[in-house]
Amino acid sequence: MTNFIHEVLRDVLSSSRDVSQYTFILPNKRAGTFLKNELSKLVKRTLFTPEILSIEDFIQELSQLNQITNPELLFKFYQIYLKFCPSEIPDSFDTFSKWAQMALQDYNEIDRHLADSNEVFNYLSAVKKIEQWSLDTDTSFIKSHLEFWQQLFIYYKALKQELLDNDLGYQGLIYREAVENLQDFIESNRAQQYVFMGFNALNKAESIIIQELLQDNMAIIYWDIDHHFIDNTFHDAGYFIRQYLSKWPYFKSNSFNWKNNYYTNQKAINCISVPKNVGQAKYIGELLHELSSKNSSLTSTALVLGDETLLPPILSSIPDSIEKLNITMGFPLKLAPLTSLFELLFQLHSKKKTSFYYKDVISILSHQNISALFYSKNKDVAAKIISDIRSNNLIYLSKKHIDEMANDFEDLMNLLFNSWLDDPEVALQRCLDLIVFIKDKDQNLTSIASEYLFKLNTVFNKLYGLNTTYGYIDSIKTLQSVFNDILDTETIDFKGEPLEGLQIMGMLESRVLDFETVIISSVNEGVLPAGKVINSFIPYDAKLEYELPTYKEKDAIYSYHFFRLLQRAKNVYLIYNSQPDVLAGGEKSRFITQLEIERTHNVQHKVVSPTVPNIIITPKRIKKTAAVLQQLEIIAHSGFSPSSLTQYIRNPIDFYYEKILNIKEQEDVEETVAANTLGTVVHNTLEEFYKPLEGQLLTIETLEGLKSKIDVTVVNQFKAIYKKGDLLKGKNLIIFEIAKRYVFNFLKQEIDTVKQGASIKIIAIESDDNYIRLNIPELNFPVYLKGKIDRVDEYDGIMRIIDYKTGHVEPGKLTIVDWEELNTDYDKFSKPYQILTYAYMMNAKASFKQPVKAGIISFKNLSKGFMPFGLKEASNNKNKKTVVDQDILISFETQLKKLIIEICNSELDFIEKEV
Questions:
Q1: Position 303 in a domain
Q2: Dihedral sign, CA of 354, 360, 362, 365?
Q3: Which residues contact 120 (CB under 8 A, 6 or more apart)?
Q4: Within this chain, do residues 32 and 98 fall inside the same structural domain, yes or no?
């Protein structure tokens, strides 16, 4: 393949002038490296390398201005705004920056295209007056609105003068000044010879400069365009160059270099549809692996990212077979892991509170660059602090509390959690100090992490300097906004060999360069081309009037870059997202449709989708190994509880995880009191009230006396269980009151029952000495049952075994018809199983000498009172037996033993149930 740079150099070398005397002007700096390389191949003698400049460097040299950085430009603009703002209350810097960025873009476009700024802003002001015309135009809001548009030109003039006085300029101003200085430059540089090559869309300033140099025989220009694009007047790839060819006086009497015929050469064009962006990255990885197996060097292969945010997933997908690659675009600093730490700190300190939300604290302490600093004597102190926060339900933490949990790390804790006092200077200094601390203390800091630190240090130093000079950042919120704006443009440059291996680049970096194999990603509408993206105060008709670029020109730029990449390529892979998000481009690009309609090339289409295996979902099965059986024996000896038995009925796999493997759910902070916490508080409160009454008859006086203790007792129970969680706000306050109401209503019901003449004697409260052995001959090891019964009392001569439930229970949930179903249906029979187990254990300890009922009191259904277990006969569904006699206990024992034998049976696996 003969590339464009080679052709230009060969033509330049054929002239009588020494190539060292030329100055080559290229669209970007990257192309200069390739030009030097190509020159070394063509010239076999020793010579001085000609001067090679990017167009921007050349224009800046011509203007004699230094380019101002975007952040500093914004600060200078605000300085001008404050000076000329007619409002008594000007916008804050934070508010100003939201519209100022757009205004600066418009200033830039106006200057780059040498439009009459006075006319443009007068036009814009007149348009806004017409839009706001009505019979009532005297409102202060409308006046302020119209005043804003009139002021834009005043700000422009003042900003321009301020920059020129300091020999500074933004890009557009540099271009305008370059045109102003052009004649003086020509007069003093007559002997110079410039070679412009590979340009397409020139702004008006560039066009005038190049034309003047051409007319004065100080330059030659080489275009890279195909006949196919020039001759077809509807093809956007030739949109700009057709205009230069027809409108530039130079080409009336001089030849046009060059129109080529490469595009129509045979090419293998593959259009690949891939779902989602990650799918594109994974497919590109597979494609590169395939290509590298045919040509391991991939020297003439380019991967062009239509959407540059795809760089991180693509880097993760590069196959190991590719040993060399060069990345021309930078890695976005905002995607660096270390950047997220400072974003977390801004989030923490921007809330202006004296205490910190626990999630913010945990996020910082668990950040990879911070947790590494909290190791002391091989102990992970950060993990210990996080565990303490969770176990104590610390939702909001003071700085003092945090310090107490990490005494040995005072310096680090101060850097992270000392208040920023809503002072940007304090915040910036704290961030800079933290960077130094991480650099000095982290022994395992990688080279790339060090690069992140250096770049962030540069950003914070830049912000510190700007704020010291101007002082416009007056709050953490504003500082965070400016920091995020800078992050959007900052990148970390990759280091590599630019002439070897696979080339990964953005669309603009591909200018002037040619490759045999081209892979382009994200060839979607809204990406390639970008479409009707409007980010300007200047309306479309005004842009047409003053020859400013619109989306039409921007689409033509994308078109040229896209089709120029295809000109000399032999193998082309166009990859697009078949399932784009709403904000990430639309259907396949019009460029693909254009290739199909032109029929110049045979476009092969391919649909790629992830391989979806035919997964047959089968329940998990866990075999009972010797270790599992040994653990089951240990459990059997310590005693099966009703909850463990019903857990097995619900799902044997859950039983295996919790009881065999001892895997517990991760303890987390209860921001809102959980249902089980509420239940425990109510249970413990009633235990504290009734435990002293064991063996006594309940009296109205005793129960009335308990009422006065409700508030204090419930508070103490919450403190014991909910630790340091806040009970006085939000839902927690409601739940706290519900707990008190449950206890109050229960006592009230007891009082009413006693008033009606009932005799209630407390036999046992929270009885936990229930530990009995089961006789199961089928098992060769002892089996025990254990359980804690909430309450046992005697009610008018009937013993009641009572289990408290703070949830809602209906009487129907306590009824059994068929004993065979007891071990199979958790939802229906878990509650009868629990209370029958309690009854069985009590009978085993001492056979019942009186009628016994076992049941539940539901605090959410307290009106039903004590709801006893009931047995119905299938033949007579109306009669229900509620007294737990020996027949019921024998029937239950049969099912109980059957369940335990199943649990301990070595031949039966633990099999997952659908829940």
A1: yes
A2: negative
A3: 110, 538, 542, 546, 548
A4: no
Q: Is pLDDT above 80 for 665?
A: no
| Position 584 confidence tier, pLDDT thresholds 50, 70, 90 | low
Compute φ and ψ for 614, nearest 5 degrees. Answer: -80, 90
Please choose, from the candidates 479, 451, 445, the residue with its C-alpha nearest in 3D space to the C-alpha of residue 464: 479
User: What is the per-residue DSSP string for 816-877?
Assistant: ES-GGGTTT-HHHHHHHHHHHHHHHHHHHHS--SS-EEEEEEEGGGGGG-EEE-EEE-SS-S
Q: Where are the beta strands (DSSP E) in 496-538?
A: 502-506, 517-521
Q: Are 240 and 201 in contact (CB under 8 A)?
A: yes
**Total structural domains within the chain:** 5
In the block, tokens 């933290």 appear at: 434
For residues 618-653, one letter each, b for 16 or more C-beta atoms within 10 angstroms of the residue's C-beta and e for the rest, the string is eeeebebeeebeebbbebbeebbbbebbbbbbbbbb
Please indicate, yes or no, whether residues 686 and 716 belong to a single structural domain of this protein: yes
Strand partners, 783: 774
**Residue 323 parent element (H or E):** none
Cβ partners under 8 Å of residue 737, min gap 6: none
- Flag whether 613 is in a domain: no
Domain boundary among 141, 175, 209: 175
As a whole number of angstroms, the distance between CA 60 and CA 25 comes to 13
Q: Does 258 sit behind a cis peptide bond, omega within 30 degrees of 0 on the bond before it?
A: yes
pLDDT at 495: 78
How many C-beta atoms lie closer than 10 Å to residue 438's C-beta? 23
Tokens found for residue 260 = 């080529």
Co-location of 60 and 80 in the same domain: no
The C-alpha atoms of residue 466 and residue 700 are separated, in whole angstroms, by 77
DSSP-derived secondary structure for 221-256? EE--EEHHHHH-TT-GGGHHHHHHHHH-THHHHS--
Q: How far is CA 187 from CA 64, 191, 213, 216, 218, in A?
A: 16, 9, 11, 10, 11
Cβ atoms within 10 Å of 194's Cβ, excluding its own: 20
Same domain, residue pair 848 and 904: yes
Max intra-chain CA distance, the chain? 126
Give tens-digit pLDDT for 339-371: 999 999 999 998 878 889 999 999 999 999 999
Task: Please say whether the dihedral angle defined by the alpha carbons of residues 451, 455, 456 and 460, taken in this order, is positive or negative.
Answer: positive
CATH number, domain containing residue 230 = 3.40.50.300
8 A C-beta contact, residue 669 and residue 389: yes
Q: What is d(CA 340, CA 146) in angstroms, rounded to the nearest whole number? A: 41
Instruction: For residue 724, give the 3-state DSSP assignment.
Output: coil
Do 28 and 77 fall into the same domain? no
Task: With H, G, I as helix, E, B as strand and everything else as coil, classify residue 330.
Answer: coil
CA distances 158 to 77, 151, 154, 162, Å, are: 9, 11, 6, 6
Range of the domain at 381: 340-489
Q: Which pLDDT tens digit goes with each residue over 602-613?
A: 999 999 987 777
Last residue of a domain, one of 239, 260, 281: 260
CA 636 to chain CA centroid, Å, is: 48
pLDDT at 586 over 80: no
Same domain, 451 and 309: no
How far is C-alpha 293 from the chain's CA centre? 36
Q: pLDDT digits over 770-787, tens only?
A: 889 999 999 999 999 999
Is the CB of residue 121 less than 8 Å from the CB of residue 156? yes
- In this predicted structure, what is the pLDDT of residue 399? 87
Q: What is the CATH number of the domain that holds 632?
A: 3.90.320
| Residues 842, 810 within the same domain | yes
The answer to whether residues 45 and 121 belong to one domain is no
Q: How far apart are CA 497 and CA 474, in angstroms?
A: 45
